[in-house]
Design brief:
The protein contains 16 helices and no strands. It has one domain (about 5-425). The model has no long low-confidence stretch (mean pLDDT about 80). With about 425 residues, it is mostly helical.
């Protein structure tokens, strides 16, 4: 029998260790610390809301926040495009362009925010009916949240593009702390779901103010200088918007649909399992955020970055695999520990939700990599598969487990086809 020599074992060991060293690993560590802190604090907020609001109101709160994530997709698109553009200016040390773009985008965000508020007031009754909200006040709170969110999002895009990862990491944690303090106070004061959402809106305002201070020095360098900055075109934004929008639909719309199709108690149980289960999706968030500006900067310099993708995917497989496995064996214990006995039935859902959302965590990392290089492979794939997932939920929502199974099936479909197309392009020389 042939015995495996020391040298192959040492090579495997070195490859594994290499995942955790280098610029990407260090930046990912900063972002991972912030993501974990923000994630833990976010779950603290969810648990507090689950306990303070009760099962039925918590289902409404979760549905509104899931809808917020979907409606905020243009902001996610804006962040990625701005970050990529700022990374290019940063690589060329063009401070005037950085300053010009920052203030121009803030002006445009203000105009867009006013339009969002107007649409919220115009269609309040329709949104209220779909969400099964008792009044229109939660709808108005949602519109306010969408209005103020764009400003800290812009700041985060600049922090990311300038590779100020420590500040970007801190902003996530601070935002979560502000949400806990403000939302809990408003709910405790008797404002219910509307108070929870209003507290989140105020938290975003405070986060914007703090992150603006972090950017102040950089912005001052470009004041008074003539800028040749190019605006972001609609042609470049649309495919990214499609990709981010469809990703949000495939990972967030399940909660909105469950709230619509199922009784309030079952929707509340699913919300608890979904909130905890999506930790598997958010674990590589720090990796993707660190990966994006590095790839954009290397692309601007016409340097290859495939090794960064492989490193990011290796870290993602390890982190998310561990997370999904823990949920599978300890799901019921986690639910009871976090939410209490009234959510006990959600434990069995959580056991499978982690593995169901796992494929989309891989898609997220690859999507960030491709968009940083100006490519949108997943945009067109999402356009085909996301509507099919919605139709599957619409026609086959016999139970909560069937919803989870549908998410797993379509997630695996996206990641399989996407990686196959990416490998084909890589072999063809499109690196």
């Amino acid at each position: 029998m042939r015995v495996l020599g020391k040298e192959p074992i040492l090579n495997i060991y070195n490859r594994i260790i290499s995942l955790f060293i280098g610029k990407l690993a260090n930046a990912s560590a900063w972002m991972l610390v912030g993501s974990i802190a923000a994630g833990v604090l976010g779950y603290v907020l969810q648990v507090l809301m689950g306990r303070m609001l009760g099962v039925q109101e918590y289902a409404l709160f979760s549905a509104i926040m899931a809808l917020f994530t979907i409606l905020a997709t243009p902001l996610s698109t804006m962040v990625m495009l701005i970050s990529r553009k700022v990374s290019e200016y940063f690589a060329n040390q063009d401070n005037s362009a950085i300053t010009y773009v920052y203030y121009t985008i803030h002006k445009r965000s203000m105009v867009a925010g006013v339009l969002i508020l107007g649409l919220g007031f115009a269609f309040d009754s329709e949104i209220q009916h779909y969400l099964k909200a008792p009044t229109s006040v939660p709808v108005y709170a949602l519109a306010l949240l969408l209005f103020v969110t764009s400003f800290p999002f812009v700041n985060n895009a600049f922090l990311q593009g300038l590779q100020k990862f420590a500040w970007l990491s801190a902003s996530s944690a601070l935002n979560a702390i502000f949400k806990i303090c403000l939302s809990v106070v408003f709910v405790w004061a008797g404002y219910g779901v509307s108070g929870a959402i209003g507290g989140a809106a105020l938290a975003y305002i405070l986060t914007w103010a703090i992150t603006y201070l972090a950017l102040w020095g950089t912005l001052q360098k470009g004041l008074g200088q003539t800028s040749k900055a190019q605006s972001i075109t609609l042609g470049s934004a649309f495919p990214v918007f499609v990709a981010n929008g469809a990703f949000a639909v495939m990972t967030q719309l399940d909660m909105v649909l469950v709230n619509y199709f199922f009784p309030a108690h079952e929707a509340g149980l699913y919300a608890a399992a979904s909130i905890l289960g999506k930790a598997v999706l958010y674990l590589p968030g720090g990796i993707a955020l660190a990966l994006f500006p590095m790839v954009a900067e290397r692309h601007a310099r016409e340097e290859g970055s495939a090794h960064l993708l492989m490193q990011a995917l290796g870290l993602t497989f390890i982190l998310c695999g561990i997370g999904a496995t823990i949920y599978f064996f300890c799901g019921e214990w986690f639910v009871q520990l976090v939410y209490g006995d009234q959510y006990r039935e959600a434990g069995e859902l959580l056991q499978y939700y982690g593995f169901a959302i796992f494929p989309m965590s891989i898609v997220m990392v690859v999507e960030y990599f491709l968009i940083a290089k100006g490519r949108v492979l997943f945009a067109y794939l999402f356009m085909l598969i996301a509507p099919l997932q919605i139709m599957a939920v619409y026609y086959f929502h016999e139970s909560l487990f069937s919803i989870i199974a549908i998410m797993a099936l379509f997630g695996m479909t996206v990641v399989t086809i996407g990686l196959a197309l990416l490998w084909r392009a890589f072999v063809a020389g499109k690196r």
